[in-house]
Design brief:
five-stranded mixed sheet, 105 residues, elongated
Length: 105
Protein backbone atom coordinates (compact mmCIF):
# COMPACT_ATOMS: atom_id res chain seq x y z
CA UNK A 1 0.00 0.00 0.00
CA UNK A 2 1.08 3.57 -0.65
CA UNK A 3 0.39 6.79 1.25
CA UNK A 4 -0.32 10.31 0.02
CA UNK A 5 0.42 13.82 1.24
CA UNK A 6 0.16 17.26 -0.34
CA UNK A 7 1.49 20.76 0.20
CA UNK A 8 0.23 24.06 -1.28
CA UNK A 9 2.48 27.10 -1.52
CA UNK A 10 1.13 30.52 -2.47
CA UNK A 11 3.97 31.86 -4.62
CA UNK A 12 2.28 35.26 -5.05
CA UNK A 13 2.19 35.89 -1.30
CA UNK A 14 5.36 33.92 -0.60
CA UNK A 15 3.86 31.68 2.09
CA UNK A 16 2.09 28.36 2.67
CA UNK A 17 -1.54 28.33 1.55
CA UNK A 18 -3.59 27.71 4.70
CA UNK A 19 -7.15 26.36 4.48
CA UNK A 20 -7.21 25.10 0.88
CA UNK A 21 -9.98 22.46 0.60
CA UNK A 22 -8.71 19.27 -1.06
CA UNK A 23 -10.48 16.13 -2.23
CA UNK A 24 -8.99 12.83 -3.37
CA UNK A 25 -10.92 10.90 -6.03
CA UNK A 26 -10.61 7.54 -7.66
CA UNK A 27 -12.87 7.77 -10.68
CA UNK A 28 -15.95 9.63 -9.48
CA UNK A 29 -15.67 8.37 -5.90
CA UNK A 30 -14.39 10.72 -3.18
CA UNK A 31 -11.88 8.76 -1.08
CA UNK A 32 -10.74 11.53 1.27
CA UNK A 33 -11.22 15.21 2.04
CA UNK A 34 -9.19 17.71 3.99
CA UNK A 35 -7.86 21.25 4.15
CA UNK A 36 -4.29 22.44 4.31
CA UNK A 37 -2.94 23.37 7.74
CA UNK A 38 -1.01 26.52 8.77
CA UNK A 39 2.05 25.14 6.96
CA UNK A 40 0.02 24.52 3.78
CA UNK A 41 0.19 20.75 4.26
CA UNK A 42 -2.01 17.73 4.57
CA UNK A 43 0.46 15.23 5.97
CA UNK A 44 -1.64 12.11 5.45
CA UNK A 45 -4.57 12.55 3.11
CA UNK A 46 -4.69 8.85 2.30
CA UNK A 47 -2.69 6.32 4.30
CA UNK A 48 -3.52 3.28 2.14
CA UNK A 49 -3.67 3.59 -1.64
CA UNK A 50 -3.77 0.60 -3.96
CA UNK A 51 -2.19 0.75 -7.41
CA UNK A 52 -4.33 2.82 -9.77
CA UNK A 53 -5.18 6.29 -11.04
CA UNK A 54 -6.24 9.05 -8.63
CA UNK A 55 -7.13 12.73 -8.83
CA UNK A 56 -6.41 15.48 -6.31
CA UNK A 57 -8.84 18.40 -6.54
CA UNK A 58 -7.90 21.74 -4.96
CA UNK A 59 -10.60 24.38 -4.30
CA UNK A 60 -8.50 27.37 -5.28
CA UNK A 61 -11.55 29.71 -5.43
CA UNK A 62 -12.28 29.21 -1.72
CA UNK A 63 -8.65 29.96 -0.84
CA UNK A 64 -8.54 33.03 -3.12
CA UNK A 65 -11.72 34.41 -1.55
CA UNK A 66 -10.27 33.92 1.95
CA UNK A 67 -7.08 35.77 0.97
CA UNK A 68 -8.78 38.48 -1.14
CA UNK A 69 -6.98 37.48 -4.33
CA UNK A 70 -8.31 37.55 -7.88
CA UNK A 71 -7.61 34.27 -9.64
CA UNK A 72 -7.81 32.83 -13.12
CA UNK A 73 -8.10 29.14 -12.14
CA UNK A 74 -10.93 28.52 -9.64
CA UNK A 75 -9.85 24.92 -9.20
CA UNK A 76 -6.86 22.73 -9.88
CA UNK A 77 -7.13 19.04 -10.63
CA UNK A 78 -4.04 16.81 -10.66
CA UNK A 79 -4.35 13.25 -11.94
CA UNK A 80 -1.60 10.79 -11.08
CA UNK A 81 -0.87 7.07 -11.03
CA UNK A 82 0.17 4.99 -8.03
CA UNK A 83 2.33 2.21 -9.43
CA UNK A 84 4.39 0.99 -6.50
CA UNK A 85 4.54 0.72 -2.72
CA UNK A 86 5.89 4.04 -1.51
CA UNK A 87 4.87 7.44 -0.23
CA UNK A 88 3.49 9.86 -2.82
CA UNK A 89 3.76 13.60 -2.23
CA UNK A 90 1.98 15.94 -4.67
CA UNK A 91 2.83 19.62 -4.04
CA UNK A 92 0.99 22.52 -5.68
CA UNK A 93 2.69 25.86 -6.33
CA UNK A 94 -0.04 28.43 -6.76
CA UNK A 95 -0.33 32.01 -7.99
CA UNK A 96 -3.31 34.02 -9.26
CA UNK A 97 -2.55 33.24 -12.91
CA UNK A 98 -0.56 30.01 -12.88
CA UNK A 99 0.06 26.78 -11.04
CA UNK A 100 2.69 24.07 -11.10
CA UNK A 101 2.95 20.62 -9.59
CA UNK A 102 5.45 17.80 -9.45
CA UNK A 103 6.03 14.47 -7.77
CA UNK A 104 7.70 15.26 -4.49
CA UNK A 105 9.23 12.97 -1.90
Amino acid sequence: MSSLSTHVLDTALGRPAHGVPVRLYQGDVVLATGATNDDGRIAELAPKLEHGTYRLWFDVAAYAAATSQDIFFPEVSVTFTVADERHYHVPLLLSPFAFSTYRGS
